[in-house]
Amino acid sequence: MESSKSLAAVLIVLFLAMTAIETVPVVQAQECGNDLANVQVCAATVLPGSGTPNADCCAALQSTNKDCLCNALRAATSLPSLCNLPAIDCGIND
Length: 94
Prior knowledge:
The chain is mainly α. Helices cover about 60% and strands about 0% of the residues. The chain has 4 helices and no strands. It has helices at about 1-20, 25-40, 55-65, 65-80. The radius of gyration is 14 Å and the shape is globular. This is Bifunctional inhibitor/plant lipid transfer protein/seed storage helical domain-containing protein. It comes from Microthlaspi erraticum. Pfam families: Tryp_alpha_amyl. InterPro entries: Bifun_inhib/LTP/seed_sf, Bifunc_inhib/LTP/seed_store.
């Protein structure tokens, strides 16, 4: 279970890093980085079987810029192709 929490934390840090290197103005990247850092309270919630998010997670999501969150997710899903690996298809519609 501890390794699952560590994996979730690594994924969130990865989202932050990918957002920061996108070709957007520095101010917007910093704002996205701050927004996404606040979402770290949701790390345990993204693990399978973790149940419903707590109030802190929901508040962080509500205050997060939706474009920042979507761009981070897009960047994360592009990683396999950047590493010459097959695309990941989780069966989730956009």
